[in-house]
Amino acid sequence: MKYERIEQLRHQHPVAVLCRVLDVSESGYHAWRKRPPSARQQEAVRLETEIRAAHQRTRETYGPKRLQSDLADHGVAASVDRIKRIRRRLGLRCKQKRKFKATTDSRHALPLAPNRLNRQFAVEAPNQAWVTDITYIATDEGWLYLAGVKDLFSGELVGYAMSKRMTTPLVMQALFRAVAAKRPKEGLLHHSDRGSQYCAHAYQKLLRQFDMHASMSRKGNCWDNAPMESFWGTLKTELVHHRRFSSREQAQREITEYIEIFYNRIRKQARLGYLSPAAFNQKYYAEKIAA
């Protein structure tokens, strides 16, 4: 351990001084440097390299437990405690969360739907219950608004749309894309907040056209739509707050890539047994066919 410490500090201090302070001989240190690395040292270096690669591969968003699962997918076995120690030594940290404000404006006289979902976020199959909401992203050209639709079963973002205006057509487009992608059966529970875009007659007519049951959060209660709020927090923590978008087009491109490539298909969720939404859906259908 003393020789390793000298090796770490030899570019800042003379070796002779370090050896004297740590009470070891210079000849012993130089002999140690000439020895080939042991199998354990080689394994430690390899694991450090794998953890650095996994940290970058997962966009600096995984904690030790999810990182362990990602490493296992790539044939690398390591305990959570060892991963924690190596991450500390390498100075690897997850991206930090930042607060964001809500976009809901429920000051209108449009009809409201009851809270049919009632925080029953656990569902048994895909396309039984969707939650939806709008958020905003800052760009140098101004705000970009993002409407999303999330499946409660797998957490997959099944539909989304972006625009420079926060309008009813924006949320309608997100819903159209979700329906086109998933073709849900009649009776799906559709949950939103009380925002004017979701209460609009045109949007409610669209829900009836798709044979969906409308559900809305109670006034001022973000917990009624917690899964969607959770996705916004994840998106902003892992992408938006670490980027400066020069244009809405750039933001749209990077957000689309994050959703389609990383979040839906790669990013593991502890709730899903450390599977991505796409893998969790595949597992469900494979088990259904096998049964």
List the helices and strands and how they pair.
Layout: H1 2-9, H2 15-21, H3 26-34, H4 39-57, H5 64-73, H6 80-90, E1 129-139, E2 142-151, E3 157-163, H7 168-182, E4 189-192, H8 196-199, H9 201-209, E5 213-216, H10 226-238, H11 248-263, H12 277-290
Parallel strand pairs: 1-4, 4-5
Antiparallel strand pairs: 1-2, 2-3
Helix pairs in contact: 5-6
What is the rounded Rg? 25 Å
Based on Cα principal axes, name the global outline.
elongated
Number of helices: 12
Let me know the number of strands.
5
Mean pLDDT: 89
Main beta sheet strand tally, sense and closure: 5 strands, mixed
Describe the structure.
A five-stranded mixed sheet has the order 3-2-1-4-5, sandwiched between helices. Strand 2 and strand 3 form a beta hairpin. It is 46% helix and 12% strand. By secondary structure, it is α/β, with parallel strands linked by helices.
What labels would you give this structure?
291 residues; 46% helix; elongated
Concise account of the structure shown:
This protein has twelve helices and five strands. With 291 residues, it is an alpha/beta fold.
